[in-house]
Design a protein that fits this description.
Elements: H1 25-35, E1 42-46, E2 49-53, E3 58-64, E4 67-72, E5 75-79, H2 83-89, E6 95-99, E7 102-105, E8 109-113, E9 120-124, E10 129-132, H3 134-144
Antiparallel strand pairs: 1-2, 1-5, 3-4, 3-7, 4-5, 6-7, 8-9, 9-10
Length: 146
């Protein structure tokens, strides 16, 4: 498949054109995937105010007592999304699920401590830490190449 990006200063929003000899299942799947792309941000509330949270600002997102919470460098925000809905909106290149109730931003990780038997301790740049559940250890090790 050939991919081409054209820069046009007059363009107000991105446009995708699929040029093909025939429409087959692969083309239909590609078109659906592009059109179904969810927004790449989250909206969080704190102190009665709603704020747009960019993925690059997020450290982790987790479920706690029926609520979904996003942690950023600027504080903690409540989300009106379920954890899986937040996960769908975040880029898979930076965010990884580490348990049934938590997703972390790999760009905000300082280190991984594999000395714990059966689990991994993740230390973030802001000094906080969390743990990978046993169920997700293998996947995290694959991502790290360990």
């Amino acid at each position: 498949m050939k991919v081409e990006i054209q820069i046009d200063a007059a363009c107000t929003e991105p446009q995708v054109i699929i040029r093909t000899a025939q429409v087959d299942e692969a083309v239909q799947a590609l078109a659906k995937r592009i059109s179904d792309t969810p927004p790449q941000w989250l909206v969080g509330s704190r102190d009665g105010e709603m704020e747009i949270l960019k993925p690059s600002e997020l450290i982790r997102v987790f479920a706690d007592g029926g609520k979904t919470v996003a942690v950023t460098e600027n504080g903690t925000y409540d989300l009106r999304l379920r954890l899986y809905e937040a996960e769908e909106r975040l880029p898979r290149s930076s965010f990884v699920r580490i348990s049934k109730s938590e997703i972390v931003n790999l760009q905000k990780v300082k280190s991984f401590d594999l000395s714990f038997t059966g689990t991994i301790c993740i230390r973030f740049l802001n000094g906080t830490a969390t743990y990978v559940s046993r169920r997700y250890v293998r996947e995290i090790k694959q991502i790290l190449g360990v």
